[in-house]
What we know:
Blueprint: H1 2-28, H2 33-46, H3 48-57, H4 59-66, H5 69-86, H6 100-110, H7 113-119, H8 124-133, H9 145-151, H10 157-163
Keywords: Membrane, Transmembrane, Transmembrane helix
Protein name: DUF4405 domain-containing protein
Organism: Salipiger profundus
Amino acid sequence: MTRFLxxxxxxxxTGLFLVALISGVALFFHWNAGAFHAMHEWLSIVLILPFALxxxxxxxxxxxxxxxxxxGLALGASALAALAFVxxxxxxxxRGGRPPQFALxxxxxxxxxxxVAAILDQTPDALTERxxxxxxxxxxxxxxxxxxxxxxxxxxxxxxxxxxxx
Length: 166
């Protein structure tokens, strides 16, 4: 078994890295994101096992890298690059570097039926009717859509199907 793991760790890392590379580039350029998103997430998780096996197999040479300052600098630079995507871009919002469509969706859910209906070029009554048909109960038209979802025991994400304009 050890021989098998030693022989397959590096080829698996190479193959899965290439998959992550290609799917990551496709996601960056928004090419068929539906197909590449799950592939990128799941196979990047699968990459953890061959990576651990590769470290185990090459631990002795790896310790030589650990003693060199360039290794620490590379890890530090990588951590700083990752931190740039995690830290909020606006200290007040706490939103970080996520895509703007998620921020827009959050703003929509904080709006009332009247506010969102105006954005969707509908009357508040028409939107209330659509929400009711989808299983949402609107007790207070001045409640936010998020509050309506909570009161209706439904997730916020169920609102997006109702709000989607045909």
